[in-house]
Amino acid sequence: MTAIHADIDALKGLHGALVRYRHAQRDVTARGEDQLTATRASLEARAARCRTQLELNQAELGACRDRAARVAADGAADRTVDCSGYARAVEQTAERLESIRRWQERVDAEASEFGGIASRFADLLENELPRVEEHLVAIIASLEAARRVQAPAS
């Protein structure tokens, strides 16, 4: 095999590698976007459950305070109503909800940064890399055509 044959084969191998790379990277970017969507949905579901729990805890605390007010109004000094457990539950649930909100903000900020980079990378995969591949195919075709040309006999 001559050097030109080896060079053409190497260029064909490079072309194949570029095509495989482009397709593999499309899958990677799609998986990244899917993971981001799943993360946002998971956080939103947690936030919704937490908001529901917070409303329930607040209602229970309100009911407890109403009972405490009725007991106090009845003047029953021997009976007290302790609402501290309900208050603690409201506080803890509010803190969890705030933590989820902070995570949502962080994910959104990171996703925004990732989105710009991913968009530029997708543009490279969809526009620039195919042009390089086409140029490489043209070079290979040109080299193969030159290989077929016979040198004049001397």
Blueprint (SSEs and pairs):
Elements: H1 3-74, H2 84-148
Helix pairs in contact: 1-2
Keywords:
about 150 residues, mainly alpha, 2 helices
Describe the structure.
The protein is mostly helical. It has one domain (about 10-145). It has helices at about 5-75, 85-150. Helix 1 packs antiparallel against helix 2.
Summarize the structure.
With 154 residues, the protein is an all-alpha fold. It has helices at 3-74, 84-148. Helix 1 (3-74) runs antiparallel to helix 2 (84-148).
| Topology pattern, helix = H, strand = E | HH
Q: Point out poorly predicted stretches.
A: none
Largest sheet: none
Please report which band the strand proportion falls in: under 5%, 5-15%, 15-25%, 25-35%, 35-45% or over 45%.
under 5%
The structure class reads mainly alpha
Number of helices: 2
- Gross morphology is rod-shaped
Report the count of strand segments: 0
